[in-house]
Amino acid sequence: MSTEKLSANSYSIAPSILSADFARLGEEVEAVLAAGADIIHFDVMDNHYVPNLSFGPMICSALRKYGITAPIDVHLMVEPVDDLILQFADAGATYISFHPEASKHVDRSLQLIREKGCKPGLALNPASNLQLVEPLIQQLDMLLLMSVNPGFGGQAFIPYILDKIRAARSMLDEHKLSTLLEVDGGVNLDTIEQVAAAGADTFVAGSAIFGADDYHQVITALRDKISTI
Fold this sequence. Notes:
Strand order of the largest sheet: 1-8-7-6-5-4-3-2
Number of strands: 8
CATH topology: TIM Barrel
CATH architecture: Alpha-Beta Barrel
Largest sheet: 8 strands, parallel
Radius of gyration: 16 Å
Number of helices: 8
CATH superfamily: Aldolase class I
Shape: globular
Helix content: 25-40%
Distance between the termini: 32 Å
């Protein structure tokens, strides 16, 4: 597991491997990291909590064995969550986030992530109220806000999420927390500036990066968009 520490005081780009070429995944991940990405994002779907099926902990383990040492950020869109928390932790995950609606005992699931040596996070769907995470905010290393409905890549950004990002930023600042505020869904060259201005510091981008011909060019362009915020 990588021991690299990420700070909420800087911006992090997190390519989602959901949009990568799985026939050469190790090379793809190496390429986006060499191009300037900070975190590798996993969108884990179970065809139960969300209407799609993606991949499991063996992919995480395979990338670690391949030599990837960058932080791996696992977003569990699954129900139940605890068994996969254990498996992804053992596979080398750095961050593990799940949806509070998918756990019968949210506090216990967060403790499980930390006990396994990973950094816990909670993820909120577009229509999920921010108040769901407020009692647990002190326990989080990451708060992930979905800006599309989970289940599929390549969707358009939902504009009203900007208000939720602002509210989440205010909540974190009020508690003087360095928790990463991550936004996932429809983040691209057209939207990243608004997302950063609203208060996010960690940006998941799938097709916007892996769909580009030049990874370095697009990651540099994304950073340029937020460089003056």
